[in-house]
């Protein structure tokens, strides 16, 4: 049996090595571990997640964790080798199924569990994965993830997890690929009794133990992506309110450090304003059953599902700065608005592969301008998103390499938002555009998706073939250039710096009259009534314009 398993694992490694060879031909530096982490391996594909019970003990003084994760799954294909992910220095100590310890073959971050019991298609099984160790400490959370072990101003432990990109397996064992979201989850955390843990979903129970610890149980009723799971431990105080939303009464809960209660009560008045604006633009908040929480943490913040984390120091802007340089960015707290916007685009609609990170970040960065528009008008929202253009590099494409856990360009934020703002101009009808955004959150409700699926949906709902538009802005780093020249009573124009057959129309003003131009790669000519021409291109289109 053991030889058979080792042979299967050997064939998996050979296949992945061959795949790495293909990638190396494109001058990339992806590793075997990148493929194990980023692809739907045969050892992942045959089983579908149904339920997790993460039971974790956190020892702050030692910066040590221990516990187990019960992984329940539905059998899709009758296989017996299962991949579970956990990153060193954490170690899996044993895996149990039906009271029997199972053999595990360790390959750095991936661990291949050999199941003894026959796995019949359609049957439900579970394994208990026990683990422990000193988890990776986050150096600059949330960009460099792991555990943040900090102290508050009163020298109390202040602890939080963050792991997007790096992977949830940096602190708990799981199926660490985004394509398969668990249907529901119980998070049990034991920590020193003078501290409070806040995790995703709703608090079911809290029990003091004889050893000076307290155990809390948080239940997540909705599907959740693995990086959206979190643990936050501190000297928290709590306040709450009820929001009368599109789907009824929504519990809004806030957890902040004890010294910050009064400032938080005032500053967090932005939260129901956020909810009103985003339900208008995107439809109902996707997790009414689990409520909404905003939780103070010792880093900037993150979009943990129904447990949004906050560390923006109770200031408007991004740590007090306006990323757009227009003034509008100081009208709201960036972390409250941006990270909460991810409840729709990241947690409701989730990428299958991080190469399609734009589905999360482009829409959510764009949501900032929609928030501004809702409260300050359309021109203000447009000015904000256009102002973010100062943060665009245009050096590498927005979409990254698939199946190796690699995101694309940092332009996924500002450029992606300006791409969507441009797309809105092509749709023209503002209400139609709003219904497309709502439709995305309705038709892809609680689903993992590909970029192709989102692109196709928008094309179909807008009634336009947007394939070249998306290929230009998502898969090419160049910004389209509209060349034009005026010769007597003729306006000549064309696209350059674009993919083949790029055909996006653009709205212009000629002598004060608005109209559409339909440039191609060839010179087009428009006859004019006068040789005195005032020519302007609508600034809401993310392009460059050059007069020749």
Polypeptide structure, described:
The protein has about 550 residues and is of the alpha+beta class. It has 3 domains: about 40-265 and about 295-310, Immunoglobulin-like; about 265-295 and about 310-475, Neutral Protease, domain 2; about 480-545, Immunoglobulin-like (Sandwich). Helix content is about 25%, strand content about 30%. The chain is built from 12 helices and 29 strands. The protein has an 8-stranded mixed beta sheet. Strands 16-17-18-20-19 form a 5-stranded mixed beta sheet, with helices on one face. It is globular and about 90 Å long. The model is unreliable at about 1-25 (pLDDT under 50).
Strand element count: 29
Percent of residues in beta strands: 25-35%
Radius of gyration, rounded? 25 Å
**In angstroms, what separates the terminal alpha carbons?**
73 Å
Indicate the mean pLDDT: 95
CATH superfamily of the largest domain: tricorn interacting facor f3 domain
Question: What composes the largest sheet?
Answer: 8 strands, mixed
CATH C-level label of the largest domain: Mainly Beta
- Number of helical segments? 12
Using the alpha-carbon principal axes, give the shape.
globular
Structural class: alpha+beta
Subunit arrangement of the protein? single chain
Whole-number total of structural domains: 3
């Amino acid at each position: 049996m053991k030889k058979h398993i080792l042979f299967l694992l050997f064939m998996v490694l050979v296949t992945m090595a061959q795949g790495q060879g293909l990638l190396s031909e494109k001058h990339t530096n992806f590793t075997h571990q990148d493929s194990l982490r980023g692809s739907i391996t045969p050892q992942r594909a045959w089983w579908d997640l149904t339920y997790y019970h993460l039971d974790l003990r956190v020892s702050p003084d030692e910066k040590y964790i221990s516990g187990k994760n019960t992984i329940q799954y539905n059998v899709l294909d009758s296989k017996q080798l299962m991949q579970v992910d956990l990153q060193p220095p954490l170690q899996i100590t044993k895996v149990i199924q039906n009271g029997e310890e199972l053999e595990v073959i360790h390959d750095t971050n991936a661990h291949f569990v050999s199941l003894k019991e026959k796995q019949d298609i359609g049957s439900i099984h579970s394994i208990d994965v026990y683990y422990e160790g000193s988890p990776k400490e986050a150096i600059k959370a949330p960009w460099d993830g792991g555990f943040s072990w900090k102290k508050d101003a009163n020298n109390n432990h202040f602890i939080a997890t963050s792991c997007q990109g790096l992977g949830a397996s940096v602190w708990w064992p799981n199926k660490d690929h985004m394509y398969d979201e668990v249907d529901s989850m119980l998070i049990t955390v034991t920590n020193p009794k003078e501290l409070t843990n806040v995790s995703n979903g709703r608090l079911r129970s809290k029990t003091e133990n004889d050893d000076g610890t307290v155990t809390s149980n948080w239940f997540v009723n909705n599907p959740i992506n693995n990086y959206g799971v979190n643990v936050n431990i501190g000297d928290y105080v709590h306040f709450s309110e009820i929001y009368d939303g599109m789907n009824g009464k929504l519990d809004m809960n806030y957890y902040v450090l004890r010294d910050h209660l009064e400032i938080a009560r005032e500053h967090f008045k932005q939260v129901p304003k956020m909810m009103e604006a985003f339900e208008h633009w995107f439809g109902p908040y996707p997790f009414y059953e689990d409520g909404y929480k905003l939780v103070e943490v010792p880093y900037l913040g993150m979009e943990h599902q129904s447990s949004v984390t906050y560390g923006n120091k109770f200031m408007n802007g991004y740590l007090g700065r306006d990323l757009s340089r227009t003034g509008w960015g100081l009208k709201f707290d960036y972390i409250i608005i941006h990270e909460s916007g991810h409840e729709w685009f990241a947690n409701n609609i989730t990428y299958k592969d991080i190469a399609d990170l734009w589905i999360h970040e482009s829409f959510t960065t764009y949501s900032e301008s929609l928030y501004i528009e809702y409260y300050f008008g359309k021109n203000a929202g447009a000015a904000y998103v256009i102002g973010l253009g100062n943060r665009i590099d245009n050096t590498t494409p927005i979409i990254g390499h698939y199946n190796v856990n690699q995101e694309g360009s940092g332009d996924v934020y500002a450029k992606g938002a300006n791409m969507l703002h441009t797309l809105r101009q092509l749709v023209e009808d503002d209400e139609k555009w709003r219904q497309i955004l709502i439709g995305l959150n309705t038709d892809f409700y609680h689903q993992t998706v590909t970029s192709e699926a989102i692109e196709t949906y928008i094309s179909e709902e807008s009634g336009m073939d947007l394939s070249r538009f998306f290929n230009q802005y998502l898969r090419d780093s160049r910004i389209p250039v509209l060349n034009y020249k005026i010769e007597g009573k003729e306006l000549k124009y064309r696209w350059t710096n674009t993919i083949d057959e790029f055909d996006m129309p653009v709205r212009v003003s000629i002598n004060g009259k608005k109209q559409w131009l339909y440039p191609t790669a060839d010179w087009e000519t428009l006859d004019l009534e006068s040789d005195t021409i005032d020519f302007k291109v609508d600034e809401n289109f993310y392009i460059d314009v050059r007069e020749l």
